[in-house]
Amino acid sequence: MPKAFSKPASSAPLEIPAAVITTKQRAVYEALRGEIMGGVLQPGEVLVIDALAKRFQVSIIPVREALRQLQSERLVEIRAHTGVRVTPVDVSALVEIFALLGALETASAIHALPLMTSADLAELEAILQVLESTAASGDTAGFEQANRRFHLLPCRIAGFTRAEQGLQSILAEWERLHRLAFKGTQPPSPEQANKEHRAIVRAFRQGDAEKLTQVIQRHNATALSHYQKLMK
Predict the structure, then answer these.
(1) Domains of the chain, each with CATH number or no CATH
(2) Helix crossing, 161-181 with 140-158: angle to 10°?
(3) Dihedral class, residue 13 (left if φ above 0, else alpha if ψ from -120 to 50, else beta)
(4) pLDDT digits (tens, 9 = 90+) for 126-138
(5) Could you give the residue ranges of the DSSP H alpha helices within the chain?
(6) Which of 81, 125, 203, 225 yields a CA-CA distance of 20 to 30 A from 54?
(7) Which chain positions lie within coiled-coil regions (predicted)?
């Protein structure tokens, strides 16, 4: 059991430093997020704050903060007078999810384009190499992690913190939808995805805003089309 969940020796109220609360919050958040993403906590399932605090052997403060963080990723819903529940999986949101991914990725990339340094391009290349090696070895989890880094990097370069937060939230929602609604289905070709990733890097190197926009939009449209076909 992580130290963050260890039970105090005394039952008397303790004044917990902020750093410790943050550590406990992170531990609760990661545990609940993993269970939601993995389907252990089912869509629509009610979460009781007091029960979670007892389970994790923490006060209700880190539990509430963890739930707020999960709410920002649309993984739980917090409603006044009705409590907290795991957000239902909404397959009908597929088109909206990819539309938002395309819009945020395009806006961030275009604003990052004139700010790109040789170090930034080298970092994109390094991530692309990870994408290609994980695709070749069949490491799905590694590919997904590298893919997330690849698409979030332009937000950081552009200084688009809101876009980055939005992308993280949408990617989390998509990851859960993919795992639960499309479980066992064939994903899009990682090799084709990496051809598009390499085209994105090439457009960054050439400073070609029009080409960059086209490739990003095609990248998302290809993935959307793949999953729409699976729904028929």
Answers:
(1) 3-86 (1.10.10.10), 91-231 (1.20.120.530)
(2) 160
(3) beta
(4) 999 999 999 999 8
(5) 18-37, 49-56, 60-72, 94-112, 118-137, 140-158, 161-181, 190-206, 209-231
(6) 81
(7) none
